[in-house]
Amino acid sequence: MNALSDWLTGAGKRNVDAPALHRPLSRREAETAIDLIAAARTREVAASAKSAMDAKAITIGDRTLRWESRSFGNAPFGKRSLWISMHGGGNAAPAVNDQQWRNQIGLYQPAEGIYLAPRAPTDTWNLWHEPQIDPLFQRLIDAQVAINGVDPDRVYLLGYSAGGDGVWQLAPRMADRFAAAAMMAGHPNEAGVASLRNLPFAIFMGGADSAYDRNRIAAERGAELERLHAADPGGYVSMTRIYPGLPHWMNRKDAEALPWMAQFARNPWPNRIVWVQDDVTHDRFYWLRIPNAATAKAGDRIEAVVKGQTITLTGSVPAGTVVRLSDRLLNLDQRVRIVVNGREVFDGRVQRTAAAIVQSLQDRLDPSSAATASVTLP
């Protein structure tokens, strides 16, 4: 590991093509490399994010995400949970949405963790599912991991009213970032639930909250998740509460979401993935990466299953798709077989390298999801 240590402290540490990073690693060496590279990347992100964290504001392009936060419990650094709680409002004057934001700041209290209420960057009807929200949330999570010691496997998403609309949209398309999600009094619009296969999801709705058919649709989506779980008992864990007689405001009964959510930690290497693209497309989902999110279309679907040493992909799998690998998914000391839509496209050994780890951690400060190897499909 001397070459790796030298690389980490050298001037070329961002060059993933450095020769030392491509030599094969044993499983033990790869585990050590993740620790070393993650520590270096954490220092880098902490330095670059310090001013934003001090200001409680992150800007990408012309959009700025501000927030307020409160801390609960005393989990050690690196083990803290993060609760991202989205406010309601939308399609209203800034003062109205500001009031909704202030209300959200005091709405819930987890037993442990950083409870963070962001202020939507806009005052549009779709506060929380405009395209810039996804990268802003990823930047926010990375900064909280680097500076406040958040565990990337214990990040939770929740939201009320228009914030609930955002949960319906963001949870499926960012399911690989969260440990659990809870939707309070929101409307899904066109969003589906198929991508929630590995994300525990809770639905809370007043039984009398009939505007836009929210109560009816919430019950239908809850029943759909139950059917999916019955057909696939390893996935689609859910909880649905339709409170009889309650209107849009549920008198804080929905706070039962937090202890339910807290029992879950994210599994970044599930053995089955269902990835359905939304109108905001992504290029990575769990251990799959497509070459270009811009060429993906809403509704494109990939299912991926690991059984033993065989990975089977079906659906809209473009050429150049990268299968990101780890010993947490299968045994990299043995041959790996990959089948795409019934055709074998790979059968052989895949070497662990530091380059794969570097690439993963440059994408996201997320050591537990860092790949140690990869295969690019023809």
Question: What is the secondary structure topology, with strand pairs?
Answer:
Blueprint: H1 2-9, H2 27-55, E1 57-60, E2 63-72, E3 80-86, H3 94-105, E4 113-119, H4 133-148, E5 150-160, H5 162-173, E6 180-184, E7 201-206, H6 214-231, E8 238-243, H7 257-262, E9 272-276, E10 284-285, E11 288-289, E12 301-307, E13 310-315, E14 322-325, E15 336-340, E16 343-348, H8 354-363, E17 373-376
Parallel strand pairs: 3-4, 3-5, 5-6, 6-7, 7-8, 13-15
Antiparallel strand pairs: 1-2, 2-4, 9-12, 10-11, 11-14, 12-13, 14-17, 15-16
Helix pairs in contact: 2-4, 2-8
Description:
It is a single chain. The protein is an alpha/beta fold and 378 residues long. It is built from eight helices and 17 strands. The chain has an eight-stranded mixed sheet with strand order 1-2-4-3-5-6-7-8, with helices on both faces. It has a five-stranded mixed sheet with strand order 9-12-13-15-16, with no helix packed on it. A hairpin with a 2-residue loop joins strand 1 and strand 2. The radius of gyration is 21 Å and the shape is globular.
Labels describing this entry:
about 375 residues, alpha/beta, eight-stranded mixed β-sheet
Q: What structural class do helix, strand and pairing data support?
A: alpha/beta
Could you tell me the mean pLDDT?
95
Q: How far is the N terminus from the C terminus?
A: 32 Å
Biggest beta sheet attributes: 8 strands, mixed
User: Number of helical segments?
Assistant: 8
Say how many strands there are.
Answer: 17
Strand content: 25-35%
Order of helices and strands: HHEEEHEHEHEEHEHEEEEEEEEHE
What characteristic shape results from the CA principal axes?
A: globular
Neighbour order of strands in the largest sheet:
1-2-4-3-5-6-7-8
Helix content: 25-40%
Low-pLDDT residue intervals, each spanning 5 or more residues = none
Using the CA coordinates, give the radius of gyration. 21 Å
